[in-house]
């Protein structure tokens, strides 16, 4: 266990214990996939109570974990998450924005990464999911991204069509084993796919997977660090030689 994992485990246990003792909701900042895997391991071992996850969008990669529930606390929890639109003041002079551009601009304001969730770009406009507690600061202080002057405002939700684009694609796989599917999707060897598991780079539904031989389940969201992310839609048939045809949704 590295030092960061030890600190995270301590923090998660503190939040879980506080929620139980006070009958209150206790939330983390945004967790990446590795941190979510630490949380799930603690839940499985019973060291923390089960937590609800909120990311502001469907299938969000970065999420906050909330300990507590309505049954024990007596009231409903509303996650303090909002969406901020970042748009050019002048469409004519605006630049195409990338994820890196927007994240860099936010980090330059001294904002901690745990306060920001997923980021999306749509040409010259970007959208940031963030904790509501930091939204006003962003609105007042984020005035430029790269060479583009921008305005920021909170909106109710991401506009339709904004977000990760998923392209359905079919592949030929030896089986429904995760290593076989990853090998097929990313056009690598089975041995290379197995190494990804050994190097702790494969996550399924936010959980780190060490067993390359596990079968994928329909609608599993698989993230492979350094390669990408896809949804496993399931088998769709067989080739003439009896090999499996599978369908996946590639995040672009």
Note down, in words, how this protein is organized:
The strands form three sheets. Strands 9-14-13-12-10-11 form a six-stranded antiparallel β-sheet. 29% of the residues lie in helices and 33% in strands. It contains seven helices and 14 strands. Helix 1 crosses helix 2. The protein is α+β, with helices and mostly antiparallel strands.
What are the defining features of this structure?
5-stranded antiparallel β-sheet, Alpha-Beta Plaits, Structural Genomics Hypothetical 15.5 Kd Protein In mrcA-pckA Intergenic Region, Chain A, 3 domains, Ribosomal Protein S8, Chain: A, domain 1, globular, 252 residues, alpha+beta, 6-stranded antiparallel β-sheet
CATH architecture of the largest domain: Roll
Please, what is the CATH homologous superfamily of the largest domain? RNA-binding S4 domain
How many separate helices? 7
> Would you tell me which CATH topology of the largest domain applies?
Structural Genomics Hypothetical 15.5 Kd Protein In mrcA-pckA Intergenic Region, Chain A
- Let me know the largest β-sheet: 6 strands, antiparallel
Low-pLDDT ranges:
none
* Secondary structure: helix percent: 25-40%
Strand content: 25-35%
Please outline the helices and strands.
Blueprint: H1 3-22, E1 26-31, H2 33-45, E2 51-54, E3 63-67, H3 70-73, E4 81-88, H4 99-107, E5 116-122, E6 125-131, H5 132-141, E7 144-145, E8 148-155, E9 166-173, H6 178-185, H7 190-198, E10 202-204, E11 207-208, E12 220-224, E13 228-238, E14 244-251
Helix pairs in contact: 1-2, 6-7
């Amino acid at each position: 266990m590295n030092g960061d994992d030890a600190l995270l485990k301590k923090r998660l246990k503190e939040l879980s214990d506080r929620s139980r003792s006070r009958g209150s909701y206790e939330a983390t900042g945004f967790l990446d996939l590795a941190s979510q895997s630490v949380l799930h391991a603690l839940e499985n071992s019973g060291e923390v109570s089960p937590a609800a996850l909120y990311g502001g969008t469907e299938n969000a990669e970065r999420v906050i974990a909330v300990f507590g529930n309505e049954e024990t606390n007596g009231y409903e929890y509303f996650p303090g998450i909002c969406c901020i639109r970042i748009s050019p003041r002048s469409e004519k002079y605006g630049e195409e924005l990338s994820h890196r551009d927007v994240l860099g601009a936010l980090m330059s304001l001294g904002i901690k990464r745990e306060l920001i969730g997923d980021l999306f770009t749509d040409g010259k406009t970007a959208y940031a999911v963030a904790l509501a507690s930091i939204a006003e600061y962003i609105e007042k202080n984020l005035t430029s991204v790269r060479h583009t002057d921008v305005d920021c405002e909170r909106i109710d939700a991401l506009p339709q069509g904004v977000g990760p684009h998923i392209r359905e694609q079919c592949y030929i796989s030896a089986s429904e084993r995760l290593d076989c599917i990853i090998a097929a999707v990313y056009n690598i060897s089975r041995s290379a796919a197995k190494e990804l598991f050994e190097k702790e780079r494969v996550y399924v539904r936010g959980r780190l997977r060490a067993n390359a031989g596990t079968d994928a389940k329909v609608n599993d969201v698989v993230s492979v660090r350094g390669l990408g992310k896809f949804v496993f839609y399931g088998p769709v048939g067989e080739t003439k030689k009896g090999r499996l045809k599978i369908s996946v949704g590639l995040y672009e």
